Known about the structure:
Chain A is α/β, with parallel strands linked by helices. Chain A has helices at 14-21, 45-51, 61-66, 82-91; strands at 2-5, 27-30, 56-60, 78-80, 95-98. In chain B, helix 2 links the parallel strand 1 (12-17) and strand 2.
Amino acid sequence: MLHTVNKSPFDRDTFQTCIKFARHGSAVLLIEDGVYAAVRDTSISKDVQAALQHVSIYALKPDLEARGMQDRVMDGVRLVDYAGFVDLVVEHSAVQSWL
Amino acid sequence: MEEEAEASAAKKFLYLNRKAPHGTIYALESLEVVLIAAAFDQDVSVAFVGDGVYQLAKGQGTKGIELKNFSPTYRALEDYDVTKLYVEQEALEARGLSEDDLVVPVEVVSAQRIAEIMEDQDVILSF
Lengths: 99, 127
């Protein structure tokens, strides 16, 4: 299953809720303000690292670049472009958008 | 006499920004209102708290999302005599950012200090 998160983890609990419901082996794609969750050395980066033990986390590169966060991404988070976004949607049986 | 009355009528305005820059329109709208209001010779302060600190992050490039990159515009605030820019220290720290990561010189202050600055205003506009 593919989960997408588009809200800042500091503004809403969307990322944390997503992680709670994402089963082992799921993919989580961070888009829009959701990409702030991918940044290292934040107050939530330990939670993200813990999540990386059981899910794959991706972040949309154009959204990171728009926010100036492209050089601050933590190890283990994979960057994708729009074509990669489409590939993730195609590869997974269902998509859950945590709005 | 009339001029004096006008001068004393200058009010203290605080623009309080709490949202990240591109996910919603708030940040851009706030910046536009600050620039418009700056033409009216009021006493203007701008504060960035919570996710609002992201508005000032260096290195923003919006070509990929096809939206306007308004972050360089914060550097123009000085030309409009808007020089009182306050950034919440706790918000920067929680997001792994420091003053060096911001596009303009600011005063990094505690949330407590921002609360005091809010008390000192005639008008607070929240974005």
